[in-house]
Please model this.
Amino acid sequence: MVDIMSLWLPILVSAVFVFILSTLIHMVFGYHANDFKKVPDESAFADAIRKLNIPPGYYMYPCAQSSSEWKSPEFQEKVKAGPNLMMTTWPAGTGMAGSLIQWFVYSILIGIFAAYVAGRALGPDPYYLAVFRFVGVTTFACYAIAGWQEVIWYKRPVAVALKNTFDGLLYALLTAGTFGWLWPR
Model:
């Protein structure tokens, strides 16, 4: 067993590597550029939404507040008539800094989970491949598998989930390799 505190270096270094790779994926490689569709007539849409003065939050339309409302003919008519949507709003002028910091912290947390699993399963001098396997499967599960809930429940396109799963595989391989390289000997 390896103490989690002795794995601080691979946790931090792998988070930095994942941060750099994700930046390259989104800013250079560009295969996520079409993850979102553009709303027809953006100006009219923005004017209509702006008039509603919707506070920041996560919304669904139509939205039933109870199972009895869900079953009501009025609600079912709204569903049939459409549009049906889920929407997240945030304050105007919101920048990327907060999200980038959260992403880095998230990557550190995933590294901590991987360190815990591998540290409990392996001794102080394991084979590189043993570290790679435990860390790789743990980080892949963290980065990739949960995203499929968005496809199942929130109608996210399968193509987006596949790209995010591929990204998760890359992040897992990078993290696993970093842990294998920096594992205490």
Notes: Helices lie at 8-29, 42-52, 67-71, 73-81, 97-121, 128-144, 148-154, 158-182. The first helix runs from residue 8 to 29.
